[in-house]
Amino acid sequence: xxxxDRPSGxxxxxxxxxxxxxxxxxxxxxxIYASAVSFWAVISLIPLVAMVVFGVGIFVDPxxxxxxxAEMSSTIPGETMDMLTEQARTWSAVSARTSTxxxxxxxxxxxxxASAGVAHLIRAINVAHDRPPWAFAARRLTAVVRTVMALxxxxxxxxxxxxxxxxxxxWDVDGWLRWAILATRWPLALLLFxxxxxxxxxxxxxxxxxxxxxxxxxxxxxxxxxxxxAAFSVYAANADRFDRSYGSLTTIVVTMLWIxxxxxxxxxxxxxxxxxxxxxxxxxxx
Length: 286
Prior knowledge:
This protein is mainly α. The chain has one domain. 78% of the residues lie in helices and 0% in strands. It is built from 11 helices and no strands. The protein has helices spanning 9-27, 30-43, 45-57, 64-71, 78-92, 99-128, 136-170, 175-203, 216-238, 241-246, 250-281. The N and C termini lie close together (9 Å).
């Protein structure tokens, strides 16, 4: 094939890679995997909220969860925000005497329910990299372990975003130091989220890969996750047909669609990394 048929320059190369990732996403049926993950995520959402409330309550006032949700309001649809806030208030009302038992129960429930979604996510990432799937028992056990590891990242992120201001108030920190600490909490939270995403891409494939904290797939998935969540929140807030079409089911529908969009960005990031790896394996003459 003549060299003129090939894209030239960095922009042309990346256009081919992104196009390849998009085709792989469609050919691999990633939308089906995203739907499965979204279903199980919704099932485990309430136990997850309980786990976070009880876990945060060990360190600070559980009502800090509401502060965290308020901080995240621009990236969470209104209906979902209302449901999460109501559930957070319900769990916060549980007495401190039962919080430890509640934490253990919530971790078990959230881990088991979410692990089904994580199992589908792991399978999808292996499909993206053209890797054979884990055996059922190994996949389920791996999913449970990975879910617990992922949940470990959730509480520090919530504490970092929600409890920083209250902690600074308790310690009478003011002035430039307070501003500096508050300014750094979001970059640190983003770093934790990036580590979580990179860890998922690293441990999911059946064949171990080199760990890359800032692979193109991680960066694109992170940007699209935040941007897509914000855009969908704006759309859902201004789309009256959700209420007209689904009535009392609006909260569930909006929440599932929001999770679907978020999971889709994660799977596209995996396909992008796979497309880059595939392009690197080709010979110059192919």
